[in-house]
Specification:
Chains A, B: Keywords: Monooxygenase, Oxidoreductase. Chains A, B: InterPro entries: ABM_dom, AI-2_Isomerase_LsrG, Dimeric_a/b-barrel. Chains A, B: This is Antibiotic biosynthesis monooxygenase. Chains A, B: One of its GO terms (molecular function) is monooxygenase activity. The structure is a homodimer. Chain A is an alpha+beta fold. Chain A folds into two domains: about 35 residues, no CATH class; about 90 residues, Alpha-Beta Plaits, CATH 3.30.70.100. Chain A is about 40% helix and about 25% strand. In chain A, strands 2-3-1-4 form a four-stranded antiparallel beta sheet. Chain A is globular. The two termini of chain A are about 20 Å apart. Chains A and B meet through helix 3, strand 2, strand 3 and strand 4 of A and helix 3, strand 2, strand 3 and strand 4 of B. Strand 4 of chain A pairs antiparallel with strand 2 of chain B, so a sheet runs across the interface.
């Protein structure tokens, strides 16, 4: 790809200056899609940790409701970039979610969806505590391979 | 793709039974690569949270060292699936990493790499506390779009 880029930069394809930004942008998009670490700051993203403690006798029900909620959100909401949920092995009543939304608007849209409201209503008596922690990602655009 | 799969299943391509599992596997791999949620359990994965508190006057130095460490690991270690690090907005001395390794062997390899040892040695006087929390992912194979 570097060779093609050099050809473009040096004008060897003879296509004129207008072609360079067009193809350059295409190559950049291609490179970003193929890389596990995108090269542009994801400055509009909302990145948050949610920490939950669930009542012990509600853990299995909570997991089912959470799984349905996050899988639906990932499938139907383009602006929900991840809802990566983990359960602690040593303390199975404790859950942490890494939530990444493309923008504040994507987050606001998410919390009005039927699947989120179903999850929220269905689990309200299962959740002993919920802590929402706003964060800044160290490497914006970091992905999961 | 569903159309192609139906053609294969019904034998309309007339290629015999041997072709179905071969092409089926190829389509499955393709689908997994293109999906934000892989459809097979990632049972060998090691999924962990690391929680760190950094001394206040060391936060910027720590961020630089951590950034170099995670970017290098993501670039050169196929078995490091993510090292997604966040800094809390309200408590900027607190960091959390979601660490996903493809297998226990990938994790053992990671902690012997030059870049990990450089990070670990270079930051040992910056870290006030470190807590490592073994977890189980709710949706194995969940990705970041």
């Amino acid at each position: 790809m570097k060779g093609l880029r050099n050809m473009l930069l040096s004008g060897h394809l003879g296509c004129g200056r207008w072609l360079l930004p067009v193809l350059g942008t295409g190559l950049l998009v291609l490179a970003m899609q193929q890389s596990a670490v995108a090269q542009v700051p994801a400055s509009t993203q909302v990145v948050r940790l949610a920490k939950l403690e669930i009542y012990p006798n509600q853990v299995e029900g909570y997991k089912a409701a959470l799984r349905e909620g996050v899988e639906t959100a990932m499938r139907v909401e383009p602006g929900v970039l991840t809802l990566y949920a983990v359960q602690e092995k040593a303390n199975p009543t404790r859950f942490t979610l890494l939530e990444i939304y493309a923008s504040p608007a994507a987050y606001q849209g998410h919390i009005q969806t039927p699947h989120f409201l179903k999850y929220k209503t269905g689990t309200k008596d299962m959740v002993k505590s919920l802590e929402l922690i706003d964060t800044v990602p160290l490497v914006p655009g970091m992905r999961i391979k």
